[in-house]
Predict the structure.
Amino acid sequence: MFKHSIFLRIYAGVIILVALVAVFCYLLVQIINYQRAQEYRESLTDGISYVISQGVERQLTLQQKKDWISDAADLLELPISLVDRSKVELSRSETKRIENEQAVVRYDAQSMVATLFLALPHDQKHYLYIKVNKIGERQMKALPIFILDYLIYYPGQEKEYLEKIHSHFSYPIEISSILDLGLDSEQIGRLRQDQSILLYRDSATIRGTTISIVSPMPNNPAEVLVIGPVPMFNWMPFQLAAGITLLSLFLLSLGVYGLILPLQRKTKQTIKALNQMKSGDLSTRLNVEGTDEMASLASSYNDMASHIQRLIEAQRELMRAVSHELRTPVARIRFGMEMLAEDDDYDSRLSQVDMIDKDIEALNTLIDEIMTYAKLEQGTPSLDIQSIPIADVLAQVAKETEALKTQKIIELQAPDLSIVADAERRYLHRVVQNLVGNAVRYCNERVRISGGIRPDGQAYVCVEDDGQGIPEQDRERVFEAFARLDDSRTRASGGYGLGLSIVSRIAFWFRGKVEVDRSPELGGARFIMTWPAKQKLQSKN
């Protein structure tokens, strides 16, 4: 059922698209956040790494540098050392950062350890190596010490030189009045004791939670060094969430459009075909692709267009044929009426009245045939499907034919009365009656009627004669309305060319078919109508 429903395919496709887009967006967020986290780590270390490298660079001798590095390592409680440049392989982006006086940060997600490499301005042989295996309050409170150590060389010019190195920091760093920070008495007391404090701010804005480090300025109790606020890393900031959401909607829109596009294309084709039909062009047909609802719609449209086209053609043919067929009996009736008016002989007048009566009967027969054909051709007739003994119908037609005194031999090879098939009795009787009447008209002296049910479950009725038969090239034409094949099948022999057309339409509505070939035993024509012995529809429509 799934493959036969375009709507189920669309729903399933949308679900699959949502799952794929969700997985894609998750991976995209992870990749973007990995890059953002790396940039965040680099932004945090760039400024303080520059200050530390400047502190090492101020030492005059290599031993002094090592001593300063040892003191810094003890202060930060982190491993710090000098490494040979030749032992460190840098990527192109890392080399560019070194050239810009920025730190190279390498983070190992499994061990959660970051390693920093800092360039020393006048030392082309070594990098300053820092291994960051923990970040706590001790490390954060030690950061202002390195900045103050840098500023101590510029007494009275601290703010100017702080502004100079500010470009290396991605977060604010300034000297402020202690009164401008809104600190409580406990925090102010700790600053008076030369202790650094941490300020946490939780904001509902995009910045979120931030941390500021406040450290007292030497020899100036009214001012403090403020580092920050530094925003905590946000794994899903508003910009990223909005971007991922818009990208997801865009991808889903493309996917849904791709699922809807075939439906839209087929719908446009159907609308175009209907517009052409409305304008009178019935020749357009739709391509039947697949087995879904649109394929069923296209197939139904093609069947409808073919049926309407056939009805219109049949109506035109019927009008032409009816006008032609009516002229002869009407002309004979008119001639008989004129003769009746001029003839005074009583016997002659009776003969003319008898001829007129026969012509009127012929008109009635023609009208009945036309009405039956039109009813079968123009729409689904009301069928009262019942289980009918085939032998009963064959015997009835044989008895009726013999009562006509046709001087023909009627052979009945009826099946057992227990052989039944689903059919409309009235129409099945009409089929056998028309076939037998046609056979009597064109046989030499013998007609054979038979029927039954084949091993494949198909019921059948068969009528054979010993006449001249029907040429193979004309066997399809005999089922066309008002068709006559040669001079032997003229009006003189009776009939109007509708009998076999009616048989063909009844076979169609019985979900069967009718065929004609040569009788293997009698040598004339053999007509066989087959239909399913068990019908799906067994009630009136």
